[in-house]
Amino acid sequence: MPAVPDISPAETWEALKSDPDAVLIDVRTDAEWNFVGLPDLSDLAKQPLLIPWQVYPSMAVNGAFPDHLRKAGLTEANRLFFICRSGARSLSAGMAAQASGFPHAFNVADGFEGPVDAEGHRGTVAGWKATGLPWRQR
């Protein structure tokens, strides 16, 4: 099975813009969606699909993750772009999606917030927010 490729946030935005069947799947937790923010795809007439890869607060892997993708109406024809905080959980989610019959899985490199900066803060060095892509508080 091919590896899940990393794709930059800017390339993800362009793919979501140009492909009506491309979907951004945010695999972070409810707490992150509520307190950190969400990608805002309203300019593209889309919304991110919110399916946690790990369930808060136990952080156990969501065993029903592939089922949630199917219940959302996704098929093997969709290009799926997975995003988390920094790109680790989304890579795991993309690998699970591929293994479950979704061959067009991509990992959004550096995630929503990216790595920490010199002061220990996220969201300034790399990732969706630092790239300047639209986002909003929930």
UniProtKB/TrEMBL annotation:
It comes from the Bacteria. SUPFAM superfamilies: Rhodanese/Cell cycle control phosphatase. Residues 18-124 form the Rhodanese domain. It holds the Pfam family Rhodanese. Signal peptide: none annotated. This is Rhodanese-like domain-containing protein. It comes from Paracraurococcus lichenis.
